[in-house]
Each structure stands twice: as structure tokens, then as C-alpha cells.
Amino acid sequence: MKNILIVTALMAGAVLGGCSKSYPSLYEVKGETFQSNQERTIAAAEDAILDALRFRRWSVDEKKPGEIIASLYKVDKETQEQTYGAIIKVSYTENSYSIEYVDSKRMRYNPEEGTIHNTYNRWINNLRADLGLAGY
Fold first, then answer.
1. Residue 49: pLDDT above 60?
2. For residue 87, how far is the Cα from the chain centroid?
3. In this structure, is residue 66 part of a structural domain?
4. Phi/psi of residue 22, each to 5°?
5. How many structural domains compose the chain?
6. Are strands 67-75 and 59-64 parallel, antiparallel or unpaired?
7. Taking the alpha carbons of 91, 59, 133, 36 in that order, is the dihedral positive or negative?
8. CA pair distance 127, 49, nearest whole angstrom
9. Is 2 within a domain?
10. Which residue segment(s) compose the domain that 130 sits in?
């Protein structure tokens, strides 16, 4: 009986020790419809997106009609260096929007597997939720 427990413990240790941390699939928002009963305009859509980005502390890097490039980087308080972050592209019309991954720093993005650190996905989901509540 003691040998069975030892073998079981060794097998469990080998299985658990051999597991590497897996990351979730990259979350992108594609063709999400704005929820609103009001008359929609491209300017109102842009304003709603900019408000959501600012609320979540994203920096707007580029802005042109129908597209916004934004970045969010966390900064080390002592060194003032960017520790990790991401760049996204928000494409929009008066009726819908998409949020796409552009680049990241230390977010463990794996293009072959299409995975990224869950923090990125949380950031994107928060933006999607904020835009759903905007009701522009």
C-alpha cells in the first residue's frame, strides 16, 4: 500500500511539474453593434470610443475617421519605465466597432497559438463593456 502511495505521489508530481502555464486565446471584438435607440452618427461613435478609452486610461496615439490607435502601458513607479502594455486599433462606423490587437510588451503574446496574458483580455473586455453601456 505504501508503494502505491509513493508511485501515485511521484506520478502526480511529474504531471503537475511538467505543466506549463497556458494563456487564454487573444480576445478581439469584431463588428460589435452599439446599443442605442438614438440617431447614430460617426462623430457620436468616435466620442463614445474616446470616452471609454480615456476612462480606462488608454492613450490615443493616432486618430483618423473610422479608426483610432490607442495604447495602455503600466509604468514602474520607481523607474518610470514601461513594464508591460499593449497597442490596439479600434475601427468603427456609426453602427458598430471592432477592437484589434496591434502589439504588446511583456504580455506573453504567442502568434502561433493565438494566446496572450489574461490582463490584455480583461482590458479589452472592459472597453467592450464600457462601450455597451455608453448608449450613445
1. yes
2. 9
3. yes
4. -100, 150
5. 1
6. antiparallel
7. negative
8. 9
9. no
10. 24-134
Mean pLDDT confidence for 100-106: 96
60-74: b (≥16 Cβ within 10 Å) or e: eeeeeeeebebbbbe
Compute CA distances 57 → 13, 73, 94, whole Å. 42, 9, 23
Give the CA radius of gyration of the chain. Answer: 21
- Whether 75 is in a domain gets the answer yes
Average pLDDT, the chain: 85
Specify the CATH number for the domain of residue 118: 3.30.530.50
Residue 117 has pLDDT above 90, yes or no: yes
Residue 14 burial (CB < 10 Å; 0-12/13-18/19+)?
A: exposed
How many CA atoms does the CB half-sphere of 119 hold within 13 Å?
13
Q: Count of H helices and E strands in the chain?
A: 3, 5
> Which amino acid, residue 19?
C
> Does residue 12 sit within a domain?
no
Residue 88, C-beta contacts closer than 8 angstroms, at least 6 positions apart: 58, 69, 70, 71, 99, 100, 101, 102, 124
Distance between CA atoms of residues 108 and 124, nearest Å: 16
